[in-house]
Amino acid sequence: MTNYTAEDLKVWQTLFKRQKENLKTRGSVTYMNSLEKMKTVLNAQSIPNFQQINQWFLDHTGWQIEVVAGLIPVEDFFSLLAEKKFCSSTWLRSWEQLDYLEEPDMFHDIFGHVPLLCDPVFSEFMHEFGKLGLSVLDRPQALIELQRLYWYTIEFGLIQERELKAYGAGLMSSFGETNRSLSDEVEHLPFNLEPVIQAEFRNDVMQETYFVLNSFDDLFESIEAMNLHLNKTSHALERN
User: Fold this and answer.
1) CB atoms < 10 A from the CB of 224, how many?
2) DSSP, residue by residue, 94-161
3) Are 153 and 176 in contact (CB under 8 A)?
4) For residue range 113-143, what is the model confidence (pLDDT) as tens digits?
5) What's the gap between Cα 117 and its chain centre?
6) N or C terminus: fewer CB in 10 A for the chain?
């Protein structure tokens, strides 16, 4: 593991405590329960030890953290998900980058993504998403559509519980965007596959539009719907 400094620990503790408090009223109940469930290996007191997290997951949903240096090829990303491996950087933002950074760091990867991997429903969705991605590596348009599905669910998804809540990793790891995503400043649309896979996005600004699940079961239905959609477009390409 990386040798972290005292400043790194201060950054981790500040980010963790601030965002956990912020999410008490804004985070999905499923995410918050998952974070609580993982508190022995994921907490504010210490920077995460990936070996300890991996050992914890062996007794739960079976995911493992795979260390990567940065962005990886799409085929490698899907391959890892299909093997129930989630890639994470060990790089942690500096104190000067506390509120904004251009690329995902360990706080985003671990605090943002990992807790929901211990939820059986979300865990299986991620696994199926990876397998689906592997099946369309030779279809550029299908990969674009899957990227949009990932963006508007896994990264920036909202869910309607008793109140509107955030669950996407890009929101869970961003104090400012969590709050903005639930405000009247942005557009909230019901989650349906067709508009999601047609919606372009930018990764260098806060989002203006968010899609809202009724439940995490919607994610499973989106995988089934995506399979049907991809089969239809594949047959159309064959006819042409």
Assistant:
1) 11
2) -GGGTT--SS--HIIIIIIIGGGGGSHHHHHHHHHHHHHHHTTTT-HHHHHHHHHHHIIIIIT-EEES
3) no
4) 999 999 999 999 999 999 999 999 999 999 9
5) 9
6) C
- Helical (H) or strand (E) element with 86: strand 85-88
CA 227/CA 221 separation, integer angstroms = 10
C-beta separation of 22 from 179 below 8 A: yes
Alpha-carbon distance of 83 to 70, in angstroms, equals 19
The b-or-e profile of 152-171 (16+ CB within 10 A means b, else e) is: bbbbbbbbeeeebbbbbbbb
pLDDT at site 102: 74
pLDDT at 234: 63
* Domain contains 1: no
Q: How far apart are CA 12 and CA 6, in angstroms?
A: 10
**Distances from the Cα of 169 to the Cαs of 70, 193, 219, 229, in angstroms?**
17, 19, 15, 26
Which are the contacts of 237, defined by CB distance < 8 A and separation ≥ 6?
none
Percentages helix, strand, coil for the chain (3-state, rounded to 5) are 55, 10, 35
Q: For residue 8, give the 3-state DSSP assignment.
A: helix
pTM of the model: 0.93
Please count the structural domains in the chain: 1
Tokens standing for residue 94: 């500096």
Q: Tell me the residue type at 135.
A: S
| CATH number, residue 198 | 1.10.800.10
Sign, Cα dihedral of 212, 171, 122, 125: positive
Q: What is the pLDDT of residues 4-48, one digit of tens each?
A: 999 999 999 999 999 999 999 999 999 999 999 999 999 999 999
